[in-house]
Write the structure tokens for this entry.
Amino acid sequence: MTTSTDHFDTTDGTLSPQPWMQLRRVTTDTTGAVFRTYGATGGQNKNEILQTLTVTWTNNTPTIQYVYGLVHHGASVVALQARSRGYLRISHAMNATLNPKAEAPSPLTEVSRFGGGADIGVGGLLGIGTDYAVHEVRAHSSTVPLMPHITGWMAVSPGLTVTAQVEVRFISENWEATNVTNGKSNTDCTVQAGDLTVDLFAVPVVEAPPTRTTPVIIGSTVKMENSKSVQVATPAGTQMGDVLLAIVGNTFGDASAITAPAGWILVHSVNNSQWDWFNAHVKVFTKLAGATEPANYVFTNSFGAEQIAHVLTLRGAMPPTTGTDANGWSIASTRRKWTPSGDMHVAPSMATNGQLLICASFFGLADNIFDGFGVVQVDQTPPAGMTQTVNLNGASASMCAAAMTDPPNPTQDRTFTTQPRAYFSGTAVTLSILVGGTQQFL
Amino acid sequence: MIKVCAAEYMLAVPGAVGMRRNWFPRIVAERFLTSTIDGDIKRCPDPVTMIEGDLTWFNNSPDDQDVFVQVTRAPRSVVAQSPNTVVIHDAWSHAVGVDPTADYPSVMQDTMGGRMQVDRPETVAADLKYGRFFFDFDGSQEWVSVGIVPSMELVHFRYLAAVQTPGVWTLPSEFEPSWEAHARWARLLCFATPVGSQ
């Protein structure tokens, strides 16, 4: 009889299941309750970290393991003098990576709030203060899932380390600054964040991981601006839960000048931290669409550069996280120096399963100086078999992007062709972005 | 017929081998508890018990088990007249052994409720302003790690919910006050899983 030693232990002639072939708690850590007392009036709004807790577990088994977490939070108390309003905010983050010290999970996502406040109108001399009143609310302890906004369990390959992070802050929306009528006696401004525990559980993956949906491109927009920030419209039809993807490139100046609005995560950057003369910089940002999204987003640019920002709305995509196991996303790029031959614009192949492949080509100074005078615009043609989402030529920047659903594994080299043949003084960047679809359940 | 030599969490008989029931995550004990004093309350400077009960489970399997107790609470409500406070405490304790008795749970730091206090404690009854605090809190759950229950040992888990009116207590004389507390019910579910690698 033969048995899988990944699943069963047969040493000493005894058959027993391996201790990783089951649901089990793999790690736990805890931190104590925190109490804070503040002055009843005066001072500024509060935004203070009360607790942070980070737990890690390395998949030391030979099989892929699903990992999920439970977060226990002890009882909460928020007691505030009238007009001050505040709450405890609990945020979670989680990732799986080969190098947890270098790639800490981010960003922290708010998953819970508890607090309150009251206002009883004006009081005191000239009616500019407030009367005495204390509003106190208390909440029981509770256990909630780690990262409750993410579907499915994280599938963690052998050797990867899962890092889970929980942060508790006290944040006030308003802090009373005027005097309390008849003084501060018996006022109360107290906050309690109960003990915090994070447990991680693992379950072996004994069959093929569940399928993922194929993301759909709902819409896309593009904007090119010179020497100033780029204001690009939010694609029409964007709904809560969609994933917004922005490919932003410029051709000149300091790469760090390319920044995204608040709420966007940088998931890839090419030629960052460099000051260049007609060299392409490209950054890729993503954002999980909320209930309301602004009509447009502003990406900053460096002085003197021409910048193109291309935003796509994807539905049925997992929101990517930073780290190696980025919720099924993979992004790779090539950056090549000028060469007169036509093989510069090749989006690299990736040996990974993905549900939507987006390739983009960006370069600067398409100046055919040897063939004539002035700037000659170079047209790009997307790779064969892919659907173009943008093709925009400026005075000194050019971007072409295209997508295909359910790409093969490996994704294969995807070549953008240019016409007429371009002469560049800088570099060209070509990207492959493999989008992970949302996890389906068995 | 061959009888496979099997270790923990497995069963082997001549010609067949399989997993024992204790290999699978499962509910091994359950208790549903209801509140005995929901409704109007009076002053209770010391906690007064609303719900109490316990749960036991004997691990009669040949292997160790990792045990969690899920405490599920009903939505809870309090009403508190200013300047007074009404809170409901929650507490539990557990013990594992051949003949264990869990300590009586002490009610500390796990509360829901509160106050809307618009008068200082020194205000006399006739001068109290009218202020009333209504607070409803959603149902909630706790996963309590009991730890490993060895073969042929017992887990004893106690649960307690109690109402208390801590701090200042003044009875208004010019209007009708009201204090209420509703704890409704709690459910205890005991889950057992095999002990795995970490």
